[in-house]
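Q: Could you write out the predicted structure for this multi-component system? I'm mainly interested in how the pieces pack against one another.
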Amino acid sequence: MPNLATLLYPDAISRVPLTVRFVETDLMGIVHHANYLIYFEQARVEYFLRRGAVFEEWAQRGIHFPVVESHVRYRKPAFFNQQLMIDCWLHEVSRASARFDYAIYADQQQLTEGYTVIACVNSQRKLQRVPDDILALMKASESYISQ
Amino acid sequence: MPNLATLLYPDAISRVPLTVRFVETDLMGIVHHANYLIYFEQARVEYFLRRGAVFEEWAQRGIHFPVVESHVRYRKPAFFNQQLMIDCWLHEVSRASARFDYAIYADQQQLTEGYTVIACVNSQRKLQRVPDDILALMKASESYISQ
Amino acid sequence: MPNLATLLYPDAISRVPLTVRFVETDLMGIVHHANYLIYFEQARVEYFLRRGAVFEEWAQRGIHFPVVESHVRYRKPAFFNQQLMIDCWLHEVSRASARFDYAIYADQQQLTEGYTVIACVNSQRKLQRVPDDILALMKASESYISQ
Amino acid sequence: MPNLATLLYPDAISRVPLTVRFVETDLMGIVHHANYLIYFEQARVEYFLRRGAVFEEWAQRGIHFPVVESHVRYRKPAFFNQQLMIDCWLHEVSRASARFDYAIYADQQQLTEGYTVIACVNSQRKLQRVPDDILALMKASESYISQ
């Protein structure tokens, strides 16, 4: 878990479990590096869902959050069938984008860290301000449920 | 679970849990059909591991099991974050190949069924007889641990 | 190419090229078996597009074609960077479903064959009749362009 | 193409074509962001192969190059069936690692850019010096063929 004292939004964090699939590993049983962006996404989606997000409703309002930047640092390999824990937290949020940070652990060791920046765009993919209700949801703890 | 009375090897079955990843679904939240072969593989690998298989040792002995045939019947969709149970059992085994059958369930309902045939080949990909120790492992219950 | 004399709809065929990606292979450079369903899909989508299909328009009309059955027979392996040719043809079409067959070739050799059955469903996933315009498109040659 | 005048190794560049697969896109036809790491890998592998690399031989010598860091900036979306060009070049190389940079283009426009850092490790995943012959290969132009 990151040092909460250093976080801008110390409540805005979720921990998500995930088990490595066989197909995600190579013949030496090591997870292929592209899968970590998929693990990050899995954690981020879960982060939103635990706070009450309904993506279909956002899409109907013309609100989309494509990833515009990603960064991963791979420290130790993850293996087939390994149980991973992913911490996902809001690092910062600006007018039209937000950065989420991630740390992946297994057996008390940190394996990987990284971040993704998502932008708020409309259905024509033009940047727009993050709506207030979604901003509140992003900054909230897991006990928050959006209306 | 299949009707055990109809199985040739009623002990040769394992049940494997698996949670659907976001990336495995489309925008309507439905699992893409190619992923079921990956779920089947995940269950089959787990089937072997629970009986003590060490794939690296098999590879060193020049024993490989590529999939030579697959069949899937998709009855109901699976959704993001859904908890699935996969039953995997030995349907039949011949001199140089084996067929495993699968049924996938969620919320007491069967979603999908299918099978894959794996062939036993050497490192030059020539068919060879399934070795006796691996044959015993394939037919065994989960309480069996190969030496 | 299949024997056209044996086909119910001998014009209803397309040939689609495709190059194997590194990620689709294992450490021995052999394509993972689940990818063939993805290659079949790539060929089938291209089959529809070459006849003028506009999937967004179908979706707006509440017409969807999920895969309800798939079968693959893997004869020879495909390798990294290999140039494949996929033949995709309409095998048969009924009131509410259609079966497409596939054969994959490399270097004049057939590697793989299989089929997928797609069902015609509405937005509530209930079976419906294949609309006449789409039926005509499915049965047509590549020179056909739907309106 | 990057400004060659700014490159440390202006010959050490390759351009690799690639066509977007249906499965790599979402329902709006836009490539999922994790696939760009796969496109980068495809280009980097091709970069090595064009200079005569034989990965199996490297593996036998106990030389492996896992990705230890990745970064992607997504500027414009890529679409189904779009023909992409990926430029891949050596940005810098140190004792035990190398950074490759990438730019992806379609229709004369740059869509994406990024880099991956690969480390040179032995079969126990311990860092080791990049061997001289592989260093020469990495810095070379496409006309170079390693022995």
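A: Regarding packing and overall arrangement: Helices of chain A lie at 35-50, 55-60, 132-139.
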